[in-house]
């Protein structure tokens, strides 16, 4: 390359990224400069080979993401911000889901929640076993299909004010909790099958509470209540409700799938019940 | 010393390092969401960048399994450091920089120290074949990959970032921790080495 040759632009020209005017100037130079023509030909060959190199690349193995997710937390979510920022919203609604069922069971005859194609009506407010009239904001809660083995993708939906929580239970394989509202960034809790493979079991637990089951209730979620989400793989996420709030809950069993469900383990009851009376 | 009229005839071009920095790229909302703790956003970033990052690591490490491990490690580190990333629009180069550090650690473990820059330079043949002749070669891609693998790590990384991952000089400089001038020089030498190795392989193929 001669000293009068442009010291840049050839690469951009080879990539087809040079603006029209500089490209015209450079092409005019190339007509009289064999060295630059040769360099441009090499750059184009390099680009073609690099393109082919990338095109022939093997697809990414899914195990890489699983390993990353297993190390950084569920679905790449950040544990610390989860616990510090929008976590309370997730905490008290997910906790509320559990406590709602506990309260419902107390108000019921004690029989286990009915399974099958049953949709329970909303209870009247007066029947609420635990309502804190001094609590700041009532919170609506809906829980779906959390009392039975998860045989197909389903969702536990919860809402708090303008926030929405979706707990996706997918064929016993993972749970996905997402909180989004207008004030906070969306956060997610996604516990996927770990190294143990498929069939992961998920438990939603609260202090002194019980496993989520079908039912409905109005309950109080007291300040300081801890929510634990534990997956069968041993991943555990703990957060805390920072303000007392009321939760109105309704849990419904979803219809059974028409086809035979894939094998899935049932959600098991709490292993460490602690006294908690809202 | 040139007379004043001659000096003013043509304003001197600033050296590459003195040129005004390019305006920062626009913010990437996905990166910002991931930095805020949004898991799905981080996963989307993984889906977007992991294939190229793994290819970069595989080309540096020359080992499929090590590339998988290094990709995993790079994303775990990126996840931890994401809140410290100041310009979300520069996530790509930032991620490549992390990945290269991971690769260097792996290479140091393997051989104790990184190879000297000029150790692996191919002997340049007296006359290079034309690039068209290389492209028409039946094993052009395999030759290209072998030639890349024969370059010293720094030059290979630099060339891969430019040719395969289409990073500009400034971004390559940020990945490699070099000045843009050094990027230009090293890229030039990497290309010389690559072409010499391609020529050597093509000549060997003809002799066979």
Any overview of this molecule?
The complex is a heterodimer of chains A (278) and B (208). Chain A has 278 residues and is an alpha+beta fold. Helices cover 28% and strands 23% of the residues of chain A. Chain A has six helices and ten strands; from the N terminus they run H-H-H-H-H-H-E-E-E-E-E-E-E-E-E-E. In chain A, strands 2-3-4-5 form a four-stranded antiparallel beta sheet, covered by helices on one side. A three-stranded mixed beta sheet of chain A has the order 1-10-7, covered by helices on one side. Chain A has a three-stranded antiparallel beta sheet with strand order 6-8-9. The longest helix of chain A is centred in the first third of the chain and has 22 residues. Chain B contains ten helices and no strands. In chain B, helix 3 crosses helix 4, helix 4 packs across helix 5 and helix 8 packs across helix 10. Chain B is mainly alpha-helical and 208 residues long. The longest helix of chain B is centred in the last third of the chain and has 28 residues.
List keywords for this structure.
heterodimer, A: 278 residues, alpha+beta, four-stranded antiparallel β-sheet, three-stranded mixed β-sheet, 10 strands, 28% helix, elongated, disordered C terminus, B: 208 residues, mainly alpha, 10 helices, 0% strand
